[in-house]
Amino acid sequence: MTEQKRLKVLDANILYLIGAILFWTIGVYFQSKDLQSGLIITQYIIILLPPIIYIMAKRLNVRKILKLNKISFKHIFLIICITILVYPAAIFGNALLITIISFLGNLNIPQLPMATNRSEYLVLIFIISISAGICEEIFFRGFILSCYERMGKKKAVVFSAILFGFFHFNIYNLLGPIILGLVFGYLVLETGSIFAGMVGHIVNNGFAVTLGYILNLAADFIPGTDAAGEMAADISVSFAMLASTILFGIISIITLSIAYQLMKIIKRDKGEPDLAIYGEDDEADVKKYEFIPLIFTGILFIIVIAIQIREIISLG
Predict the structure, then answer these.
(1) What span, in angstroms and rounded, lies between the C-alpha atoms of 194 and 75?
(2) Residue 69 exposed, middle or buried by CB count within 10 Å (0-12, 13-18, 19+)
(3) What is the DSSP string of 141-185?
(4) Is the pLDDT of residue 226 over 80?
(5) What letter would DSSP give residue 222?
(6) Which DSSP letter does residue 292 get?
(7) Is the pLDDT of residue 275 over 50?
């Protein structure tokens, strides 16, 4: 790839800002009209389309930038196992932050849509699992990760994961996506394939949708659900969150250690590849002005989080 056709960190940050603006205008508008169709528009029009257009407009190699490379069935299986094992850690991350902010007042945690029948379940699998897994991975582990690779592979994984978490614009769901982003970014670079991130993302979201569906079905058959709910209402939210956070923290230590061993298998299979598109010498090419778009995105994020915290305090 020639110097004129290299993606820069500035490219990622500009598109990230554009995506945030589109999300809080077009995305929020259509989701308020109809959540399911709004989510589809958000995924395919706001998240997937811009990086594709950007890459094609600059006449870059789409396959190389997005790492559209094959992945073995063995690694697919390992990635599925790794994702399930990392799931408790993502829950722990969110639970930890929620526990802290629960001391400010009463929480108003937004819930993902939960299926009540088979047709709703299949629709949610398509929207929340498959669509999000494809579109968000193309944007974050495809475009943004490639742009940040000129800073080095480790920084690329960290920055892309943080941007992924912040893009949710939700204080209740911040640390979880960052943890998952770190794992998906590592797997994409280690395998050299965006499909590693897609598989992990689809499995993670699909697991959440399936769990919600199962809980809905179980609620119809478990007696005394209302009484249990009344009993739970008498328990301090902060205490309950603290207990669940500790529990998931303990589980995470065990599952992450297993996941790490599985990651080592993938690394061993791939040998010691040069995972960065750009060499270490290119780090000097990243200028401070390339991060200016993130300032505006950060301001938007702070405003949204401030509104959420204000709501928590007002409900307290």
Answers:
(1) 13
(2) middle
(3) IIIIHHHHGGG-HHHHHHHHHHHHHHTT--GGGSHHHHHHHHHHH
(4) no
(5) S
(6) H
(7) no
